[in-house]
Structure formats: structure tokens, C-alpha cells
Amino acid sequence: MGWKTWAVALLLATSVAPRPAAARGPLRILGSDAVPLFFVRDGVTTGFCAEIVKEIQRRIGDRTPIEVVPWVRAYRTAMAGENVMLACPKRTPAREALFKWVGPVMETHTYLYALRSTGLRLQTLDDARKLDGILLPRAFYSYEYLERAGFTNLEPVGTSRTMLTMLLAGRRQAMVTDSEQLPALLAQAKVAPGTVVPVLSLMSTQSYLTFPPDTPEAQLAPWRHALDSMKQDGTFARLTRQWLHR
Length: 246
Known about the structure:
This protein is α/β, with parallel strands linked by helices. It has helices at 3-16, 48-60, 71-79, 125-129, 141-148, 160-168, 182-188, 217-233, 235-244; strands at residues 28-31, 39-41, 44-46, 66-68, 84-90, 100-115, 134-137, 154-157, 174-178, 196-211.
């Protein structure tokens, strides 16, 4: 092989090879606005997942700023190959190979919801396929799940608040969200509890902290150890009671 051919081959190889996480720049920690898990109050990032991350950071001496951005942006940033830790995404088969997973942090229960006033009753996923449209946030795990299940009546929206607004206005019959997030979502919209009710259970999933798939285990170990220590010394249980009332 001539030197020019060798140089071209080397250039192509290095341009397509994935860069180690450390070579992508400093770590970024991203979470999306989802009360009571991750949100900004009085200029301070807080919520169950945020406080878990901050306590781990305190224990391992990490000072990475925590950023609150729309979920679609956070997910796309992580998928674009940046050195990103996502706070509390759901672990699903479709995402398994996309990240390194630290956790679990929490378990959530996902339902199809409708306005109580409509009297909607569903028994199976096939019943849900017949609805005139199902609202759910774009790029959420629930969207991936239902899309893979063959649903063709999904209507993705930008945020959970938009989804609720459209449901309340009668734009669509149903929406998808977690039972853990619904009370705060209704409170933010000043909607009385019980206005929106579950009509079909969809799944239970676990949330984790995620890192790029090629992150060395040595970089993950302090995060894993700190989370395990929190679970052992009662800190994790205290935060769970405080934020999730469990």
C-alpha cells in the first residue's frame, strides 16, 4: 500500500470510529422539565431525579452543572454523540444498547388517560387503536413502545402540558403519561384531581441515569457506588418519600 493510499485509509478509519466519551469534551448533565422529577423552582433545579443526581455529585466531588432542557433536545443531544448524562430516562429494549445504565432510580407506571366526563372505557390495546388520536410527548419511551406495537393513531406533541391542554379542549380522546407525574401536571394547569382518569394500563418501567455507550466502567463506578450507598444509608428512601410520597 502506497503512503497516499495508507493515509486515506487511516483518515477514513478515524473519521468513522466512535470517539471515547472522554474525548467528546466535558460531561453534560441534562434533564427535562417534568414535575416532580426534574424542574426549576425559584431559579434552582430540583425534583426527585435532580436531587438524586445532586447527592451523587456531592459524594463523588462532581461539579458538572445540571441543565433543564426539553426532552427531545436532551435525547437528541445524547444520541448525537456528545458526552451527556441523561437524568431518569426509561430503560426499554429499544434503548438498551444506546446507553450505559446506572440505577435503577425509580419505577413508573404508565396509563392511557381520558376525561372522566367522556365515560371512555377501554379493555385492550386493540380498543385503544380505534381511538381518533392518542396524545403523547414526542420521543418519549411511551411513543416508542406504542409505535413498535403497531399504533397508527399516535399524535406526538412538544410537551406534557401541551398534551393535557389538548385533551382538556376535547381535541383528542386520550393521552399517555405516568401516574407519578399526573398529579403535578394537573396542579400546574389548575385542574381538579379526578378530572382526568386512567382508562388502560400500558406498562411499568424503570428509570436510570444514562451515559454514552462507550463510557469506561472506571468513570461509571463512582456513580454506581454512590447510588448504592444512598440506598443503603437511607438517603434514597428519604428522597423517595419526600418527592414521590412512597
